[in-house]
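TA notes, week 10

Several of you asked for a full example with nothing omitted. So below is the full record: C-alpha cells for the whole chain, then the designed sequence directly under it. When grading your own attempts, check the secondary structure regions first.
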C-alpha cells in the first residue's frame, strides 16, 4: 500500500480521520463495515448494531448510516441522504457524485480492513460496492434481498458468489435465491420491532387540542425528495376534498429526517394545516391517535399494519420509470400487504389511478364504515405472523446478528471455497 504522503489529498484526509477514529477506540475487536442508504435501512442498521454489540461488545462499526446508526456510535463516512435517490433522472443527475461516493466507500473499506462488509438494501449501489471489494479478504453480507420476485426475476442467477450470506426479510424469498445457489437465511422483518405499545392516542389529541370526535388522517409521503415532489400535491388535494365531508379533519404528516424542511415549506399554504410530527415517541402517539392513513407504498404499509391502522395506498413515479416498470414488474400489486396476501386487502391507487377524488372516496369509506375498517384490520395478524423469525424468542435483528456472528467466526479460506 502507498505511504500516506503519497496518496491524493482526499485520501490523506480519510487516512487521518480513520487513524483518529481508531486511536480514540477502546475496543480492539473486529471491524464491521455497514452501508445504509436511506432511513429504513438506517433503522435496520441501528437495530443490527445494537444486537451485534450485545453479542460482542468488542466489535467496531464503520461505514455509512443515518442518525439512528450514528446515535449508536457509527461515524458516517458522508451524509446518508446523498445516496437516497430514486427515479431515472435523479440517478442520471447525481451519477458523478454517486460514483465519487462509491470510490470513497471502496477506499474506506480497503483502509479499515473489515472482517465483514454488510450492505443493507440499496441493491444497485450495494452491488457495485461489493463487486469492487470482491478481491479483498473480507466476508460479504447483503441484508434485505433484491425483489427479484417482483421484477426481472431472471437476474437472480447473477447473484451467486456476490454475497457470502443473504439475509431475507420474507420467508418466500429464500427459495428464489437458494435455488440459484445463494447462501440464504430468513431472519424476519425488523418492522415487527416497532414500539407501537409506547403510543398514547389521548396524549396526542390533548397535546394538539384535537376533540375526541374529530377524525385524524395520518399521511406518510415517503423519505425521498422525488416522492415528496410527486405525492404531496396529490395528498394536499385529497385532504381538501375529504375535509368537505369531515370539516373537523386533522391531517398529520410524519417528517422523515431527509425531507423534513422540504415538507415544512410545501405544507405552509395548505387550507387544512397539517400537524407535523418528528421524533420516535411523537410518531407512536400519532399512530395511536389516528383513524386511518394515506401512505405511499413500501415498508410504511407494514408499519401501519403493525400499529393496526387501516389505510389507503397511493403511489406515483416519473413517466420514464413508470414506462420501464411496465415491462419488468411481475406482481399484480404494489402494496406489500397485498403482495403477501396475494389479493387486495388494502385499496391501492397507482400512477394514472392516483387521483385525489379516488383517494378521498376510499378514505371516506374507511372513516364512515366501521365494517370496512374491521375487514381490513382482520387480515393483518395472519400476514404479520409470516414475518416473524423461526425462533420466536428472537427479534428479527437478533436473528440477523446471529447470522453475522456465525459468518464472522468461519475461516475465510473455507468461505472462499464456497464462492
Amino acid at each position: 500500500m502507498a505511504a500516506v504522503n503519497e496518496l491524493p489529498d482526499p485520501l490523506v484526509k480519510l487516512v487521518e480521520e480513520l487513524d483518529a477514529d481508531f486511536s480514540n477506540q477502546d475496543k480492539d475487536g473486529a471491524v464491521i463495515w455497514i452501508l445504509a442508504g436511506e432511513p429504513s435501512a438506517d433503522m435496520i442498521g441501528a437495530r443490527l448494531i445494537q444486537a451485534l454489540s450485545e453479542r460482542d461488545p468488542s466489535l467496531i462499526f464503520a461505514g455509512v448510516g443515518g442518525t439512528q446508526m450514528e446515535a449508536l456510535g457509527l461515524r458516517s463516512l458522508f451524509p446518508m441522504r446523498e445516496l437516497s435517490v430514486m427515479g431515472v433522472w435523479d440517478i442520471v443527475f447525481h451519477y458523478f457524485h454517486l460514483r465519487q461516493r462509491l470510490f470513497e466507500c471502496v477506499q474506506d473499506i480497503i483502509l479499515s480492513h473489515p472482517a465483514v462488509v454488510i450492505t443493507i438494501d440499496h441493491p444497485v449501489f450495494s452491488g457495485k460496492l461489493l463487486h469492487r471489494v470482491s478481491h479483498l479478504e473480507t466476508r460479504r453480507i447483503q441484508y434485505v434481498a433484491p425483489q427479484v420476485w417482483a421484477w426481472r426475476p431472471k437476474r437472480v442467477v447473477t447473484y451467486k458468489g456476490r454475497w457470502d450470506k443473504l439475509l431475507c426479510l420474507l420467508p418466500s424469498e429464500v427459495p428464489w435465491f437458494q435455488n440459484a445457489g445463494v447462501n440464504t437465511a430468513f431472519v424476519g422483518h425488523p418492522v415487527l420491532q416497532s414500539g407501537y405499545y409506547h403510543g398514547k392516542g389521548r396524549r396526542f389529541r390533548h397535546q394538539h387540542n384535537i376533540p375526541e370526535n374529530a377524525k385524524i388522517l395520518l399521511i406518510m409521503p415517503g423519505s425521498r425528495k422525488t416522492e415528496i415532489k410527486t405525492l404531496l400535491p396529490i395528498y394536499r388535494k385529497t385532504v381538501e376534498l375529504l375535509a368537505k365531508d369531515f370539516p373537523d379533519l386533522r391531517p398529520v404528516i410524519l417528517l422523515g429526517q431527509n425531507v423534513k424542511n422540504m415538507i415544512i415549506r410545501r405544507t405552509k399554504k395548505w387550507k387544512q394545516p397539517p400537524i407535523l410530527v418528528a421524533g420516535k415517541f411523537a410518531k407512536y402517539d400519532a399512530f395511536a391517535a389516528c383513524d386511518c392513513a394515506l401512505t405511499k407504498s413500501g415498508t410504511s404499509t407494514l408499519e401501519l399494519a403493525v400499529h393496526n391502522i387501516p389505510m389507503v395506498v397511493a403511489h406515483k413515479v416519473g413517466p420514464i420509470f413508470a414506462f420501464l416498470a411496465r415491462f419488468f414488474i411481475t406482481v399484480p400489486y404494489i402494496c406489500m400487504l397485498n403482495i403477501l396476501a396475494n389479493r387486495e386487502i388494502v385499496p391501492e391507487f397507482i400512477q394514472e389511478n392516483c387521483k385525489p377524488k379516488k383517494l378521498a372516496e376510499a378514505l371516506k369509506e374507511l372513516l364512515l364504515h366501521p365494517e370496512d375498517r374491521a375487514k381490513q384490520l382482520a387480515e393483518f395478524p395472519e400476514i404479520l405472523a409470516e414475518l416473524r423469525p423461526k425462533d420466536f424468542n428472537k427479534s428479527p435483528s437478533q436473528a440477523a446478528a446471529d447470522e453475522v456472528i456465525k459468518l464472522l467466526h468461519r475461516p475465510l479460506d473455507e468461505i472462499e471455497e464456497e464462492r
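The longest strand covers residues 31-36. Use that as a sanity check on your answer.
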